[in-house]
Specification:
mainly alpha; 10 helices
Length: about 220
């Protein structure tokens, strides 16, 4: 007779790059932790923030054919708290440690994200850059400590990271919930839908780039 795996062993075997695996192992609590790690700790830059939020929202409907069903109110709270607390923590770490944390990393992807984050801050100013960065993977991780290291005022950073964080975290979660509620067996199309969500999340940044280029040509 085969002995069923211990629940702790199942959690330790979780695939952190797979949204379904994370949610099956940790549920709503996992969403909050991942949001915090992705936005507040440089080591979390690889975590699947966009797909996790969308998939979690989908699982709140109970229409995806999965045995797992999450509570929408609890999920919204966990997503928002994790995203906002993570960004603020990243900012404070940046103020304390400067660029030392980033300099220690050997990840080319992380350094590329830092370069793009610095370009956003220089090109669009603090408010727009902080909001837009929420919708760009990796950039939303490194912009927070970078803003702290570059001396972005605390009040400015806090106001705009809260605004951007709520739109991003709650928006993607509710998008997953709305789609799961309206389309039967939507889980069959989950991968292309997630890809579309990632593309759509980049629209604000793309629109701002086009607007800036048009304004530069006209000036």
């Amino acid at each position: 007779m085969t002995t069923p795996p211990h629940p702790l062993a199942s959690q330790l075997a979780v695939n952190v790059l797979d949204a379904h695996s994370l949610l099956a192992a940790f549920g709503v609590l996992g969403v909050g932790v991942v949001m915090f790690a992705e936005t507040g700790l440089l080591i979390g830059f690889f975590l699947p923030g966009d797909s996790l939020l969308f998939t979690a929202g989908l699982l709140c409907t109970g229409s995806s054919g999965q045995s797992l069903r999450l509570s929408l109110p609890a999920l919204l709270v966990a997503a928002a708290v994790g995203a906002l607390a993570g960004s603020q923590t990243g900012y404070l770490l940046g103020r304390k440690a400067g660029g030392a944390l980033l300099a220690r990393s050997g990840s080319a992807r992380l350094h590329e994200g830092a370069r793009r984050a610095e370009e956003l801050l220089e090109r669009y100013g603090h408010a727009k850059a902080i909001v837009l960065a929420r919708f760009v993977p990796v950039v939303r991780t490194v912009l927070n400590p970078l803003a702290g290291a570059l001396g972005v005022p605390v009040r400015t950073f806090t106001v705009w990271q809260v605004a951007g964080g709520l739109v991003w975290s709650l928006g993607l979660t509710l998008a997953g919930y709305a789609l799961g509620s309206s389309i039967p067996n939507v889980d069959r199309y989950l991968l292309p839908i997630i890809a579309l969500i990632v593309v759509v999340s980049l629209i604000p940044l793309a629109a701002e780039l086009l607007r800036s280029r048009r304004a530069a040509r006209e000036s």
